[in-house]
């Protein structure tokens, strides 16, 4: 990836290098920390221009050169205040780490990327410096000490941690339904942010980093702020964050419970409060890998995570944005412990959509994946409420829902489960099959229904005939009831029409 970045940037300073797109209407604006419009602080100036001897590691005199992490530069900054430092190849090996620290401190300066014409030269210098840091981090040999780690984390924090201010969008109305724009908002500072994220990724993955020392700086506060960035509207940023979080989870074992707990809290807020978050799919991708590595038998903590967090994630309306990743996490649990299938299926039934046909198709897709990993004992525990719900789906007027429910019989494992439990299942779904066979409007649904009826008839003709006789008997009893109900409504309408001009109560014998 870093080779691609280098290939795009010429070594000489050019107007286009590092320049963001000037179209700011679709860009996400970021609200940085306080002190956003200050000039480059004198402390940073001193750090950049200080000799190597002053910046010796561990020297107390370095404190006076620490940068102001919130400093920015405006359009009137003199170019002389922000000049490129020599390359790592141009200094002796003994001074490379000192130069590394100077470059890191230099990259703490923040620029205004909402105006592409501001500080063009300085932005190009900073980007080239960041690329040099990435290259050095990749090829460095020798352990990094605490001072370097502290400076690196401070520089990364100054660049990537920010509050998101969503840009207002014009929603379109189609047939009275509000639709959001599909185009995600891109961060205008991405040309620099990308290199900072690449640097952080190389830092976390580096074999020269001692996790016992690094955990003092990549601490809970840093991790929590990193998780907050997952709400970015820029998918490129979320992709980097996903990879970095996965590396942190793997390297810093001490942070694992905290990371899981913090992600849980974000999910709770999303499900039960806001139903708005841009990074749910990326979180679930990371969790899918984590769940895959759970040791057996599963801890009670992990089972509670399934019941209290993953299953309720089926509730929000925007399920389609992360359903594939959620389904993977759910099926991982079933494969780890087949006894959880009953809990999962009952959870799906609990959150089953009533009026959202698109979401119901997603539920049926996930249900098939879960049933494919379900064993007979767990299937028998939940088959009654399950096939009551499938029966309702079979009679759906939305042809995709009914068709998807009928496709369950195309799965060999599910078909085998149904065969062995046909005496319980067929009486439940027979009325739905009979109604579809008689008068469903969609030809494909009608044809699939006839195939399923034939499947049951060939499997057990006696059971099929018994269910058919019971259905006809129930139908004959239902006709008088329906006629009485229609007659009652007719009399009620007649009485109401006569007394429409009065305020008398309408009594119907």
From TrEMBL:
Q: Where is the signal peptide?
A: none
Q: Name one GO biological process term.
A: signal transduction
Print the keywords alphabetically.
Cytoplasm
| InterPro entries, sorted | ARM-like, ARM-type_fold, PP2A_B56
Spans through the membrane: none
Give the region (Disordered) as residue ranges: 1-42
GO terms under cellular component: cytoplasm; protein phosphatase type 2A complex
The Low complexity compositionally biased stretches are 17-30
Q: Where in the cell is it found?
A: Cytoplasm
**Entry's Gene Ontology molecular function annotations:** protein phosphatase regulator activity
Q: Which family does it belong to?
A: Belongs to the phosphatase 2A regulatory subunit B56 family.
Function as written in the Swiss-Prot or TrEMBL entry: The B regulatory subunit might modulate substrate selectivity and catalytic activity, and also might direct the localization of the catalytic enzyme to a particular subcellular compartment.
Q: State the protein's name.
A: Serine/threonine protein phosphatase 2A regulatory subunit
Q: Which organism encodes this protein?
A: Perilla frutescens var. hirtella (Perilla citriodora)
């Amino acid at each position: 990836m870093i080779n691609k970045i280098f290939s795009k940037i010429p070594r000489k300073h050019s107007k286009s290098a590092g320049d963001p797109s000037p179209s700011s209407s679709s860009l996400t604006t970021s609200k940085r920390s306080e002190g956003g419009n200050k000039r480059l602080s004198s402390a940073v100036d001193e750090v950049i221009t200080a000799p190597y001897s002053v910046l010796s590691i561990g020297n107390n005199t370095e404190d006076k050169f620490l940068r102001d992490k919130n400093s920015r530069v405006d359009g009137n900054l003199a170019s002389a205040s922000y000049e490129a430092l020599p390359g790592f190849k141009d200094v002796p090996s003994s001074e490379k780490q000192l130069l590394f620290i100077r470059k890191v401190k230099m990259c703490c300066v923040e620029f205004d990327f909402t105006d592409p014409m501001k500080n063009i030269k300085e932005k190009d210098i900073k980007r080239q410096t960041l690329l040099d840091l990435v290259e050095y981090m990749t090829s460095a040999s020798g352990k990094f000490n605490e001072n370097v780690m502290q400076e690196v984390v401070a520089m990364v924090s100054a660049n990537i941690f920010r509050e998101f201010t969503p840009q207002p969008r014009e929603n379109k109305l189609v047939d009275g339904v509000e639709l959001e724009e599909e185009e995600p908002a891109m961060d205008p500072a991405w040309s620099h942010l990308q290199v900072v994220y690449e640097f952080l990724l190389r830092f976390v993955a580096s074999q020269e980093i001692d996790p016992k020392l690094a955990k003092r700086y990549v601490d809970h506060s840093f991790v929590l702020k990193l998780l907050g960035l997952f709400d970015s509207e820029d998918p490129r940023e979320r992709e980097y964050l996903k990879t970095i979080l996965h590396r942190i989870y793997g390297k810093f074992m001490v942070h694992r419970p905290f990371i899981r707990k913090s992600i849980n809290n974000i999910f709770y807020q999303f499900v039960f409060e806001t139903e708005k978050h841009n990074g749910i799919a990326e979180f679930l991708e990371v969790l899918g890998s984590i769940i895959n590595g759970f040791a057996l038998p599963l801890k009670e903590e992990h089972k509670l995570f399934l019941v209290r967090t993953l299953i309720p994630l089926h509730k929000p309306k925007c399920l389609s944005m992360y359903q594939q990743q959620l389904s993977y996490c759910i099926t991982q649990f079933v494969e780890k412990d087949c006894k959880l299938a009953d809990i999962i299926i009952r959870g799906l039934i609990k959150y089953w959509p009533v009026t959202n046909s698109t979401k119901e198709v997603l539920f049926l897709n996930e249900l098939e994946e879960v049933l494919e990993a379900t064993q007979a004992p767990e299937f028998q525990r939940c088959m009654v409420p399950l096939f009551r719900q499938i029966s309702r789906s079979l009679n759906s007027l939305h042809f995709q829902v009914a068709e998807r429910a009928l496709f369950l019989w195309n799965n060999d494992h599910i078909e085998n489960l149904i065969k062995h439990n046909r005496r319980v299942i067929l009486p439940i779904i027979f009325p739905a099959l009979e109604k579809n066979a008689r008068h469903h409007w969609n030809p494909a649904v009608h044809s699939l229904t006839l195939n399923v009826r034939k499947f049951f008839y060939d499997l057990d003709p006696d059971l099929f005939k018994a269910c058919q006789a019971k259905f006809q008997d129930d139908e004959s009893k239902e006709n008088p009831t329906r006629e009485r109900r229609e007659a009652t409504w007719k009399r009620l309408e007649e009485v109401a029409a006569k007394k429409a001009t009065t305020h008398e109560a309408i009594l119907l014998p």
